[in-house]
Amino acid sequence: MDAARHCVGLTDGRHVHYDLLSLDVGSETATSWLQALGPALLPVKPLDPFFDRWPHELAQARARGTFRLVVVGAGAAGVELALAARHALQQAGVQARVDLVASENGVLAGHHPRVQQRVLAYARRAGLHLHMQRAVGAEGGVLLADGRFLPADLVIAATGARAPVWLSMSGLALDPAGYVLVDSHQRSSSHPDVFAAGDVCARPGSGPVALGRACRACGAGAGTQPDGGTCRRAAAHLFPQAQRAVPAGLRAALRHRIVGSLVGAGPLGVALEGLDRPAVHPPLCARAMARPAQGRWEFGMIEKTRSEHGA
User: How far apart are the first and last CA of the chain?
Assistant: First the structure.
């Protein structure tokens, strides 16, 4: 992205120029201590590569008949993904072992102790192998802090978040952690034609959106995870702000073209379809990883149609 040129570069080499830009690309997964895994590493974020790769991994596991999966990170995302993957592998008839690696803080750190206890009990009943210690990547698996080695065909990283690397070259004003600085209207503090919501942005004085830290965009408190509805409300807030940013004389001409380009189409994305109404991309359900193709995600992530949401 080049904010000075009002341009976004795509992976296929094309460039898209914009009048207004809405960023809702989320964060990336911090995996520096797992890089030794090489191609066996699958970060949860960015979402699109994860979406693309999971069905291939499941198909290969089905063909082999056995599979060793390690999920590193035991927040809400890591726990749900481990359970969903375990179910998917069972449904596919695969003899699988699924290890869930948490830090010494345990599963669902920051949640109520009773929630933690119930989730732990359910995870054990589901057949997950739990490890309450840190781990680093190694060739062929992960090495735990106590010296044990967990062999893995695939390691899913659901660890801490980091800002997308390409933001550092965008020309946008960023906070010290590399997230887009926005004001109370989700507008870039340096470029008024750019808006941002969700995990990609920050307000002055706040930190990255993650478990244990305050939400940058929707105001969820420290130690909590913003729920999908709250984040969708924060994302949908972009549309009226973008609408007001367009000069009145241009609104009729722009009414039937996309003037706000959506960079990213993740679970909480917002597309600006003309100036009459926003189209909110509905949430996905990670628990459906084992199901046949539904909606637009081939590996079974459920996406309700826009008509169901009245969009």
Answer: 29
